[in-house]
Every structure is written in C-alpha cells, then in structure tokens.
Amino acid sequence: MIVLRLCGGPIIYMSILAMILGTAYGGFMLYNSSLIMAETDKYKTYYLYGSYVVWGLSVVLLCCACCNLKNIRIGVAVMKCTAAFLGGTPQVFLVPPMALVFIILWLFVWMVMSAYLVSIGTLQ
C-alpha cells in the first residue's frame, strides 16, 4: 500500500501520457508506411488517411486529458486515501473471501431445497 500511495499518481499520469503518445506514434507509423509504399499501391491512401484519423484521435485524447486534469487529480487523491485506509485496516481484505463462503453456503442450501422440490413429484 505504501508503493501505491507513493507511486500511484505518477503511474496514472504516465499511463495517460503513454496512451496519448502511443496513438501519436501509431499515426506516425501509418504515415511512414504510406510514404514507403509505391504510388500504385491501392492501400497507400488508406494508410495516409488512417494516419490522420489516428493523429486526430491522439489530439482528442490530449484535449480530454487536459480538460479533465482536475478530475484526474481527484481520482489520484481518492486512490491515495483508499491505499491509506487499506493500509490501516487490513481486515477489509477478509470481506471478499467471507462473502464467497456465504454465497457457496447459500448455493448449497438452494440446491438441497431445489432437489427436494423436484423430487416431490409431478404438478397437477
């Protein structure tokens, strides 16, 4: 939890930056591939216009990230507070396994009751 509290913010910001730069690089690779192709290749224009579309997607992602910086900061703060809470109260980790045990018990009871209902006979 300490690592999540200390490195959570940079990990989120780096992943958003990597997504934006990754789409920009994808557009660059499509554009570069269109330049390498011969003029007679019928897919050259698809690669060229595809690169423009991917670059446009990269710009849209950048605009969305810039417009939601406040919300991203709030999300990072919530994640840090959650990590602090989980570090202080480790018994919270027992909730999912205990819920699974109760669900399995309820399923077993339900199956036994269903077997009794099915074994009664035919409906009239």
* Oligomeric form: single chain
Please mark out the parts with pLDDT under 50 across 5 or more consecutive residues, or reply none: none
Distance between the termini: 61 Å
Overall spatial form = flat
Order of helices and strands: HHHH
Mean pLDDT, nearest integer? 91
For the largest beta-sheet, the strand count, sense and barrel status come to: none
- The amount of helix comes to over 70%
Structural class: mainly alpha
Portion in beta strands: under 5%
Number of helices: 4
Q: Rg from C-alpha positions?
A: 27 Å
Number of strands: 0
Number of domains: 1
Tell me what the structure shows.
The chain is 84% helix and 0% strand. The protein is mostly helical and 124 residues long. The chain has one domain.
Can you give keywords for this protein?
single chain, 124 residues, mainly alpha, 0% strand, flat
Q: TL;DR of this structure?
A:
The protein has one domain (2-90). Helices cover 84% and strands 0% of the residues.
Topology of helices and strands:
Layout: H1 2-36, H2 44-67, H3 69-88, H4 95-119
